[in-house]
């Protein structure tokens, strides 16, 4: 059975998520609240782990309430994107599942991710990684926000 066999429900509002294909990637978008569910699989979780940090800096409050994973119903963990830590700019949050590695990107963070530049790849690095593909997909789906 395909991992996309059943309808997923938005962790934030409960609406059915709509799969949207972008190149080789597929993300699930909520038509009601505009949140995005991204499945991290096939080893790509390493890219996510480098881009996201679970440490919450002082003075930054996490979104509430905690939601559950639409795939495995585990409580999602709020995580701050490392790429903007210490920048003085508004910082995007994701809610990540510790079991399946999927991530929910709330609407407020979608725009922030769409305007962020992907981290610079080291010289001689292979083609754009998962972070770059996600950023490109969010820009294409929701505009650059500029």
Please explain how this structure is put together.
The protein is globular, with a radius of gyration of 15 Å. The longest helix has 13 residues, at 130-142. The model is unreliable at 42-62 (pLDDT under 50). Helix content is 20%, strand content 18%. It is α+β, with helices and mostly antiparallel strands and 146 residues long. Strands 1-2-3-7-6-5-4 form a 7-stranded antiparallel beta sheet. Strand 1 (18-22) and strand 2 form a beta hairpin. The protein has a domain at 18-55 and 63-117 and 134-140.
User: Which structural class should the secondary elements be placed in?
Assistant: alpha+beta
Averaged pLDDT = 68
The 3D shape can be described as globular
What is the CA-based Rg, rounded? 15 Å
Query: If strands are numbered along the chain, what order do they take across the biggest sheet?
Result: 1-2-3-7-6-5-4
Q: Would you list the SSEs in sequence order as H and E?
A: EEEHEEEEHH
Low-confidence stretches: 42-62
Termini separation (Å)?
Answer: 41 Å
* Percent helix range: 10-25%
Content of β-strand: 15-25%
Describe the main β-sheet briefly: 7 strands, antiparallel
Secondary structure tally: strands: 7
The number of helical segments is 3
What is the strand and helix layout of this fold?
Blueprint: E1 18-22, E2 25-29, E3 36-38, H1 45-51, E4 52-53, E5 77-81, E6 93-96, E7 103-105, H2 107-115, H3 130-142
Helix pairs in contact: 2-3
